[in-house]
Amino acid sequence: MDILIIENETYLAQSIASKLADVGHDCHITSIMDTNLKNDYDVILISSGICGDDYEKFIRNNAESIIIMMISYVSDDTVSKPIKAGAKDYILKPFMIDELIRKIEHYRNYKNIVTKINFYNSYFNFIEKELNTPTPFQYNPPFIIKSNSQRSADIYAMKYAREKNVCFEFFTLKEDKYKAFLKNNPPKSTMIYITNLEELKKQERKDFLEIALKHSMIISLVSTDKIVFPQIMDISNIPNNQEIGAEILSIREYEKAIITKFEGRYPDIELAKKLGMSRKSLWEKRKKYGISRKK
After folding, report:
1. How many whole angstroms separate alpha carbon 153 and alpha carbon 80?
2. Residue 207: what are its φ and ψ, rounded to 5°?
3. What number of CA atoms fall less than 13 Å from residue 10's CA on the CB side?
4. CA-CA distance, 69 to 99, in Å (whole number)?
5. Is CATH 3.40.50.2300 correct for 2-119?
6. Is 43 helix (H, G, I), strand (E, B) or coil?
7. Which end of the chain is more exposed for a tag (fewer CB within 10 A), N or C?
8. CA 118 to chain centroid
9. Residue 255 · residue 225 · CB < 8 Å
10. How far apart are CA 80 and CA 77, in angstroms?
C-alpha cells in the first residue's frame, strides 16, 4: 500500500517508514500538511503535533484514504474532530508498530469488503430490473417460488433476502449436500435457499417437501408441473425478460435439447405428452438424435 507519513519528528517518521516497508508497504515522509493533496495515498498517518487550523479540511479532502491519527493525548482536537471529519482511527504514542500494522490491515480489509458489497449491490440492482418482482412479499418461509427460469427465481429469492435483511445457506437438489445439512437440524432462524426441485421425481419430491415444512426454506421450481404445498409463489406468468439464449435454435436442436434435459425427470409417456407426440415418436427421435435413455 502507498502510505504517507505526516510527522515533524524525523527520527520517528523514519522508524515507522522502515518498519512498514519491511512488511511490503511503500512509505513517503513529509513534515508539511498540504491541504491541496487529494486522494493520492491508500493510507495517511498524521501526527497531531503537526496539525494546523486546516487539518479538518485536509482530512475531508482525503476521505477515500485510510487516515489514522498519531496522538500524544486524547482530546476533542486530537480524536473527536478528526474522526468526525473522516479519519478512521487513532493510535496513542508511543505505540507498538504491530498495533499500527493491525489497524492498517483492519481498515484495508474493511474497505475491500465495502467495495465488494457495493459492487454486488450494483449488480443486483441491475439484474433486478429483469423481473417485475411482486412486493410486498406474500409469504414467509417455507414457500416455493414457481418460475419459468432459474434466474427469475433467484432474483425473487435475493430480493426477499435483501428486503428482509437475512442471509441464506445455498443448496441445490442436484447434489446431496443438503441432506447432511438438514440432518444436523439447523435452527429455525437459519434461512435456506434450495434450487432445482424440478430435478426430483414425484415420490422424491413429495418426501422432500414434507421435510421442507420443518425448516425456514425457500425452494425454486422451474417447471409447469402442478405441485401441492401450503405456500407457492407463482411468478411464472409475470412478464420479464426470459432467458431464451443468444441464439435461435432449429426445431431439431430444440427437440434434442429438451429431450436431453428432461428425459431423466419424466417417464417416457409423460415426456412425450408434454412434447405433444406419441411415445413411439419420442423413441424414434431419441434414436435419431443419438440420445441414450437415462436410468
Report:
1. 47
2. -65, -40
3. 0
4. 13
5. yes
6. strand
7. C
8. 10
9. no
10. 6
C-beta separation of 14 from 40 below 8 A: no
Domains 2-119 and 143-234 share a fold: yes
pLDDT of res. 125: 83
* Grid cell at residue 155: 432474483
pLDDT value for 291: 79
**Which amino acid belongs to residue 28?**
H
Phi/psi at 53 (nearest 5 deg)? -75, -20
Show the cell assigned to 174: 442436484
C-alpha grid cell, residue 37: 493533496
User: Peptide bond preceding 82: is omega within 30 degrees of 0, i.e. cis?
Assistant: no
> CA 217 to CA 239: how far, in whole Å?
25
> Residues in the chain, how many?
295
131: DSSP letter? B
Which residues of the chain are under the pLDDT cut of 70? 39, 52, 130-136, 239-249, 264-265, 293-295
- CATH class of the domain comprising 143-234: alpha beta
Q: Which three cell numbers stand for residue 63?
A: 476521505
